Amino acid sequence: MSKIVELKRRRAELSAKVAEMAALETAGEVMSAEQIEQINAMHAEFNQLGAQLQRLEAAEQMQAAAAAQVENLDSQGVSQEGKLHAQPAGPKVAGAGVAHLAMALIEAQGNYQAAANIADQRGYGAEVAAALNTATPSAGGVLVPTNLASEVIELLRPKTVVRRLGARSLPLNNGNLTIPRLKGGAQVGYIGTDTDAPVTGAQFDDLKLSSKKMAALVPISNDLLANSGISPNVDRVVVDDLTSAVGAREDKAFLRDDGSGNLPKGLRNWVLPGNVFPAPTIATIDAAALQAIELFLNTLILALEGVDANMVQPGWVMSPRTFRFLEGLRDMKGNKVYLELAQKQLKGYPVGLTTQIPNNLGAGGDESELYFADFADCFIGEDQALMIDFSKEATYKDGDGNVISAFQRDQTLIRVIAKHDFGPRHRESIAIGIGVKWGK
């Protein structure tokens, strides 16, 4: 096991122990002199480990940065000794560090030290080489450091509806995050002479997020990987495949997962029962139908406005079928009813489309849902690191449930593990329409 990983694990243990003992004192328990001495000793060890970590990490980065380029290359870019050379710098691809880490690991067949050497020789950068040099040989794969993983996490924003509409990302501390919220307002009023002032007592509650592990499997063609390091377009394809797979599963979790077992709880299961409204059935498009649709949309908006929701970044989420119905809706004179949908706006608020809201709900298997929420009031607690592993022999299921052999297809299966959780600070900031059969 890497020395750096051991030190980080020990620091995390010390931090947890100190927090546990501090919680006892906060609860009113008087700490003994021996306990205080233990805390002081742990503080000292924590600081000592921090200094040691800083030295080791600096040494790893220097080692990776000092990798010498190979000279005397032939026309194929290979030296007479058969070594790879650093490729000329091309356009920077956001998230390429994670793609390079995965490709170097695959090319080295899981040998971390060899992968680090490949990263050096191909010019993948000191950060990638350092991450591989400090990797822990385990079934969990390679821990992608924060500086590389943050690029990939940021790339998820345009690919996931919930992030793009304004959900706020916060780091998880030791796998947990608690966000206080105002549950009931203070009582305020005017009083006369000799009249008691109203009791002022705001009620508070907590939104508690805890780490949930998500694994995304991404099949990559071995023919494509054979060209790694030659073209930045290969980096873009790998990064796009990684972020698309993670993003699709995130949207499903943050929208519709029920919170059971190891799943996060999505908006559909956070919403208050009183904020769930059945959609009107539209048989023919006439004036009455248009009025019913308008009233339904206003009902969803008023569900938030009626409880003084902050309405900082409200937005809609719907399936493509629902969007196409509304976008093509015309009045009795042939004019489009919602012209702004061409700019992905509905009644002044942004619209997100996702196939993660299904069209096969309900008893008849033909219903969908329509979401309206203040996404600035929604929080994603996430670990700022990712884990990457690979296999050339594993099997996986495609979108139709068919079992696919990576070996038989000449593919490499990359597994990305992310840890996060999701929740709204105020459940009143969500309204959902159900039974939407429009456009079926």
TrEMBL record:
Segments forming domain Phage capsid-like C-terminal: 140-432
Subcellular location field: Virion
UniProt feature coiled coil, ranges: 4-76
InterPro entries xref list: Phage_capsid (IPR024455), Phage_capsid-like_C (IPR054612)
Superkingdom of this protein's organism: Bacteria
Entry keyword set: Coiled coil
UniProt entry tagged with the keyword rRNA-binding: no
UniProt name for this protein: Phage major capsid protein
Organism: Chromobacterium rhizoryzae
Lineage, opening ranks: Bacteria, Pseudomonadati, Pseudomonadota, Betaproteobacteria, Neisseriales
